[in-house]
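Dear support,

I submitted the protein below through the web form. The confirmation email said the job was done, but the results page showed an empty box. After a refresh the structure appeared. I'm attaching both so you can tell me whether what I see now is the final result or a partial one.
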Amino acid sequence: MQHYADVDAGVGAEALRVYDAVCSSPGVTRSALCDLVSLPPEETSAAVDRLLELGLLESDDRGSVVAVATGAAVLRACNAVIRAAAEERQEAQRLAALVTGLDAMRASAGAASPDRLVSLESVRRTISVLAAQAQEEILASQPGGPRPDEQLKESLGRTRDALERGVRMCTLYQWTAQFSPATTDYVSYVTSLGAEVRITQDSFMRLLVFDRKTALISLREVPHGALVVHDPDIVNFAVEAYERAWSASQPFPTHYVKDEVVAASEDIKLSIMRLLTEGHEVSVIAKRLGFSHRTCQRHISEIMQRLGARNRLHAGYLISQKGLLDAPPAAPRQPAACAVPLPVH
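What the results page shows now:
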C-alpha cells in the first residue's frame, strides 16, 4: 500500500487513496470504492466529492467514477486560475479608470487640494489601484530601517504582479534595513523578479510615484496617512529629489559579507558622531539613521565611553577637537582612534 502520511492537506490522504483505487479500477461505483480503500462510506463519499471538485475524477449517469489524467486536471485548474486573475486585473483597471474619472470631474468642478488619506486601509486601497494601473514605472522610498513583516507580506502580491507586467520598480531603503532578515529575504526575492533596490545612509521622505504622474507622500501628523498628489510640478519635484537620493545610494546587499558588515559598522559610528557634532537629540539621530531610540542610545553611550565624554554635547566637542571626522570620504576606512566598531542591530 502506498504511503500517504505526508500528503498536502489541500487534497488529503483519503482522497489520494480513492484516486489511486479509481485509477486501478476505472468505472467503479462509490459503494464498491468503500471496499477497495477500506474507508467508511461517509469518508469515501467526501473524498470522491473532493476529487470531483478538483477535476481529478469524472462521474457518469450510473454513479460510476473514472480518473482524469493529472496533466489534464492541472491544465484545467491553471486555466481557471488564469481566467480568475485576468478578471481581477480587469476589475482593478476598471476601478482605476473610475478613480481617474472622478478626479477629472473634481478638477473640472474646481475642487482644490490633493486627497488626504488618513487611514491605513484607504492608503493600501489607493496603492493597490495605482499599482494595478501603472504601466511603466513605480518609484518607492521606505525610510525608518527594516519594514514590518506584515507590510512586506501585504505588498508582495502587487509588487510581483507589477513586475510580471514589465513595470520597472525601484525601491530605496534606509541602510539599517539590510540587517533585518525578513527585509533581506523580501529584497532577495523581488530583485530576482527584476526589481531594483538600494540603500542609503541619508534620511528621506516616504514616497511612492506611479508612472511619474501620481505621487503618495506621507503625512507629517498622521504616521500611516498619505497625501495623493497629481500636480505635475509637485510630482516632478518629488521625482527629482528621489533621483538625487537614488544616485547617491548603493545596491542592497542580500548576502552576508564580513568585510561589508565591518564597513557598515564603521559607517554607523561615523554617522552618529557627525550628528553628535551638530548637536542633535537622540530621537533625531535615531530617525535620521533608521534606528530604534534604544539602539541609537546604546551606540551613543558606547561612543561617549570610548571618548571619555560626560554627555552628548561633550562628545560632540571632543569629536571635533580630535578631528575624527576630518578624513576625506574617499580615503580607506581606518579604525577611529576613539573607538572600536560598534555592534549593528
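Response: this is the final, complete result; the empty box was a page-load delay. The chain has four domains: 13-68, 77-112, 116-251, 258-322.
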